[in-house]
C-alpha cells in the first residue's frame, strides 16, 4: 500500500538523510569496486533501469523486456506503439488523436499515458500538465537514434516516484561512435506518408563524443473514414474526409566528455482530429492540436576510488499544447456560425537528482538518492471570440528521497528492498515500498517473488480543468494507488531457448477516470471503486547463431471492480504474440514477421469490439550497395478490419483503425 502517516514520513526522511551521509562517508574510507563495466558491454544480458545500477537481467527485481536497435531495424518498427504491441502484457489503442498505453489488465480511456513513466537516457519526459507523453510519431526522440529500450513492468514508484504505476520505459539513445559519420534515412509509404532523418555522430581523439539528429515526418492520414454515428446529410453522411493529417519535427543533440553528458531535445507535432469529439463540428479541418516539448539535461557520473558510484543530474523542460476546436453556435445547427474555440496549456519545470550507489559489507549494494522538481509554470487557458472559459495559472514543487539495498543473502539468493518518500506541495505525501526475492535454486533457473506499490498523483488537468462547456473540475480528487504481487520464472532451456512466465495480481484503489455527470452531462474526473487485475504471461524466446530469432507469448488478464465484479473497459482478456526474424535468405534480404492476436475489449456502452489478428512483415537488405540499407514494410498484412473503444468524449462507441499500409525505407551512411 501507499503510506501517508506523518510520523512515518518524518522518520523516513531523517533516516534517509542520515544514511546518505553514512554512505558517502563510508565510501571515502573503504575500497570496493563494481563489476559494472563488464556487464555494460554484455548486450541484452544486462539492464540498468530496474535498480538504477547495471545488473544481469536474471538478478533484476522485475519482469523486463529489452528491444535493441537491431530489432527495431529488422522488424521495421515505426514508433513506440509498434514496439509495445509485440510485448507480452501490453496493448495500445488509438482514437485518431493520440495513442494510449494499456498494461496488465488496464487501458484507462481518457488517459494521456500518465500511468507509465518514460525516460530518455534516464531523463523523465512525462510533462507537468497532463503527466503524459506521445508514443507514436510524436515521440520525443526519433526512433532511428534509439540504441535500446528497457521496459520494466510493475510498480516502480519505490525508485522513480510519481507515474511509475504500471511500468517504466527507458529509451537509451545511440552514442556518437555508433554512427561514425552522417546517416541519412528517408521513407515513403501509404497515405502520402514521408519522413526524413539526418544524423551525425562521432567520437574524437580528445575524448569528446557527439550525436546530432534532426527529422521531419508528414502524412495525409486516412482520407476517408466512416463513422456510422454521424451518418446524416448534415454531417457528410458520416465520412470524415481529408481531416486526419499529421506533421512532426524532431531535433536531438548529445555531447559527452569524461563523466559529463549534455543532451537536449525538441519535438513538435501537429495533428488534425477527425472524430468530432467533445461535440465539435464533424469533418472540420479547424479541429486540430499542436504538441511541443523541449528539454535540456546535464548528467555527471563518476566512480570514486572508494567504489562509490555518483550520478548527478540537472534538467529543464518545457511543454506547450495548443488546441483549436470547431463549434457550431447557431441555434438551427446548420453550421452557419462556426466558432474556433481555442485552448493553450504551457508547462515549465526544472529539477535535479543525485544518486549514490555503493557496495557495503561485501554483500550489500546500497543505492541512495534524492530528486527535486519545481513546476515554475502550470498554465491552461481556453477561450472563444466571446469570452474566456478557463484560466489556470499555478506553480508547485515536489521532492523525493529513496533508499534501496540489494542484499546477496547467499550465492543463489538476493533480496532487494527499496522505499521512497515523496512530498507534493499541493497534494498528500506518499511513501512507497518494494521488496523482491530473487532465487536461483538450480543452474539456469531463476524465481522472483516481488511485492511493490506505486501511486499517481492527480495532475493539473484532472484537478482544475473547468471550461463550463464540455468539462468541469471535480469537487475532490485523491491520488490513485496500486499494490502489485508478482511471481516470475526465468528458465534457460538450452543454449538457444529461454522461457519466462509471470503470475501477477494488481489491486488499484481510487483509480482516476474521466466520466460523464448524469446531472449536467459534463465530463468530470472522479475516483472509481477499487479494481483487481489478475493475469499470467508466458513467453518463449529463441536466439540462434545462424541469425534466426523468435518469440511466442500468451497473456491472460482479467480486471474487475471489487464491488460488483463488472469487467473493466478497454482490456483484451487474451493476447497471443509471435515474432520471427530470419538471417539473410535470398538476394541479400532477411525477413521479419510479427503477429498479434487480441480478444475483444468491452466498450463504454457495454458492447464488445471484435477480436482481431494483425500481421506485419518487413523485408530488409542491409547492404544493397555500400552502406545503403533498404527495408520494405507491410503493416496489417491481411487488411484486418478492427476497432478500439471510444472514450467519454466520443460519440462513437468504437473507433475504426486503418487497413493495410506499406512503407519503403532507405538508410545511407556516409563515413567521414
From TrEMBL:
GO terms for molecular function: siderophore uptake transmembrane transporter activity. Residues 264-637 form the TonB-dependent receptor-like beta-barrel domain. It is found in: Cell outer membrane. It is a multi-pass membrane protein. PROSITE patterns: TONB_DEPENDENT_REC_3. Gene3D superfamilies: TonB-dependent receptor, beta-barrel domain (2.40.170.20), TonB-dependent receptor, plug domain (2.170.130.10). GO terms for cellular component: cell outer membrane. Belongs to the TonB-dependent receptor family. Hemoglobin/haptoglobin binding protein subfamily. This is Iron complex outermembrane recepter protein. It comes from Colwellia chukchiensis.
Amino acid at each position: 500500500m501507499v503510506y501517508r502517516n506523518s510520523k512515518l514520513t518524518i522518520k523516513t526522511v531523517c533516516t534517509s538523510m542520515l544514511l546518505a551521509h553514512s554512505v558517502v562517508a563510508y565510501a571515502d574510507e573503504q575500497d570496493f569496486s563494481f563489476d559494472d563495466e563488464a556487464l555494460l558491454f554484455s548486450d541484452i544480458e544486462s539492464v540498468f533501469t530496474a535498480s538504477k545500477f547495471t545488473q544481469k537481467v536474471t538478478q533484476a527485481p522485475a519482469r523486463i523486456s529489452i528491444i535493441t536497435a537491431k530489432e527495431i531495424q529488422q522488424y521495421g518498427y515505426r514508433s513506440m506503439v509498434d514496439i509495445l504491441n509485440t510485448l507480452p502484457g501490453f496493448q495500445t489503442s488509438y482514437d485518431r488523436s493520440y495513442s494510449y498505453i494499456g498494461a496488465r489488465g488496464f487501458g484507462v480511456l481518457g488517459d494521456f499515458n500518465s500511468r507509465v513513466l518514460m525516460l530518455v537516457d534516464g531523463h523523465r519526459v512525462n510533462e507537468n500538465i497532463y503527466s503524459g507523453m506521445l508514443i507514436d510519431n510524436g515521440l520525443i526522440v526519433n526512433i532511428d537514434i534509439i540504441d535500446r529500450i528497457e521496459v520494466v513492468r510493475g510498480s516502480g514508484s519505490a525508485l522513480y516516484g510519481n507515474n511509475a504505476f504500471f511500468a517504466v520505459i527507458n529509451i537509451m539513445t545511440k552514442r556518437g561512435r555508433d554512427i561514425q559519420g552522417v546517416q541519412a534515412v528517408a521513407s515513403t509509404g501509404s497515405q502520402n506518408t514521408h519522413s526524413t532523418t539526418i544524423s551525425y555522430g562521432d567520437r574524437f581523439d580528445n575524448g569528446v563524443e557527439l550525436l546530432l539528429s534532426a527529422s521531419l515526418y508528414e502524412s495525409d492520414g486516412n482520407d476517408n473514414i466512416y463513422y456510422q454515428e454521424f451518418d446524416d446529410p448534415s454531417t457528410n453522411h458520416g465520412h470524415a474526409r481529408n481531416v486526419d493529417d499529421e506533421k512532426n519535427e524532431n531535433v536531438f543533440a548529445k555531447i559527452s566528455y569524461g563523466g559529463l553528458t549534455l543532451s537536449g531535445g525538441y519535438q513538435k507535432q501537429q495533428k488534425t482530429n477527425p472524430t468530432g469529439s467533445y461535440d465539435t463540428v464533424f469533418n472540420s479541418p479547424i479541429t486540430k492540436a499542436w504538441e511541443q516539448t523541449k528539454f535540456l539535461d546535464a548528467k555527471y557520473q563518476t566512480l570514486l576510488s572508494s567504489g562509490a558510484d555518483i550520478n548527478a543530474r540537472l534538467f529543464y523542460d518545457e511543454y506547450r499544447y495548443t488546441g483549436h476546436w470547431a463549434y457550431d453556435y447557431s441555434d438551427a445547427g446548420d453550421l452557419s456560425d462556426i466558432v474556433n474555440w481555442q485552448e493553450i496549456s504551457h508547462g515549465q519545470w526544472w529539477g535535479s537528482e543525485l544518486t549514490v550507489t555503493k557496495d557495503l559489507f561485501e554483500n550489500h549494494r546500497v543505492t541512495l538518492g534524492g530528486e527535486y522538481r519545481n513546476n515554475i509554470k502550470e498554465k491552461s487557458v481556453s477561450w472563444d471570440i466571446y469570452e474566456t472559459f478557463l484560466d489556470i495559472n499555478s506553480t508547485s514543487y515536489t521532492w523525493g528521497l529513496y533508499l534501496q539495498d540489494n542484499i546477496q543473502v547467499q550465492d543463489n539468493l538476493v533480496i532487494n528492498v527499496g522505499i521512497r518518500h515523496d512530498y507534493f506541495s499541493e497534494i498528500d505525501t506518499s511513501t512507497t515500498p518494494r521488496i523482491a526475492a530473487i532465487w536461483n535454486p538450480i543452474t539456469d533457473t531463476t524465481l522472483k517473488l516481488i511485492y511493490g506499490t506505486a501511486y499517481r498523483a492527480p495532475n493539473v488537468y484532472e484537478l482544475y480543468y473547468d471550461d463550463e462547456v464540455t468539462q468541469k473540475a471535480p469537487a475532490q480528487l485523491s491520488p490513485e494507488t496500486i499494490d502489485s504481487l508478482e511471481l516470475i520464472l526465468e528458465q534457460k532451456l538450452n543454449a538457444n531457448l529461454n522461457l519466462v512466465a509471470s503470475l501477477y495480481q494488481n489491486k488499484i484503489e481510487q483509480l482516476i477516470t474521466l466520466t460523464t455527470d448524469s446531472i449536467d452531462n459534463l465530463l468530470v474526473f472522479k475516483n472509481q471503486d477499487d479494481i483487481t487485475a489478475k493475469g499470467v504471461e508466458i513467453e518463449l524466446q529463441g536466439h540462434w547463431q545462424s541469425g534466426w530469432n523468435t518469440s511466442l507469448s500468451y497473456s491472460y488478464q482479467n480486471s474487475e471492480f471489487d464491488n460488483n465484479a463488472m469487467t473493466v473497459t478497454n482490456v483484451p482478456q487474451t493476447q497471443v504474440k509471435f515474432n520471427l526474424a530470419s538471417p539473410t535468405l535470398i538476394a541479400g534480404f532477411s525477413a521479419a514477421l510479427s503477429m498479434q492476436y487480441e480478444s475483444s475489449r468491452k466498450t463504454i456502452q457495454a458492447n464488445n469490439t471484435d477480436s482481431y489478428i494483425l500481421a506485419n512483415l518487413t523485408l530488409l537488405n542491409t547492404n544493397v550497395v555500400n552502406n545503403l540499407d533498404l527495408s520494405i514494410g507491410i503493416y496489417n498484412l491481411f487488411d484486418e478490419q478492427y476497432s478500439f473503444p471510444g472514450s467519454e468524449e466520443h460519440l462513437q462507441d468504437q473507433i475504426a483503425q486503418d487497413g493495410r499500409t506499406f512503407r519503403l525505407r532507405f538508410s545511407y551512411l556516409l563515413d567521414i
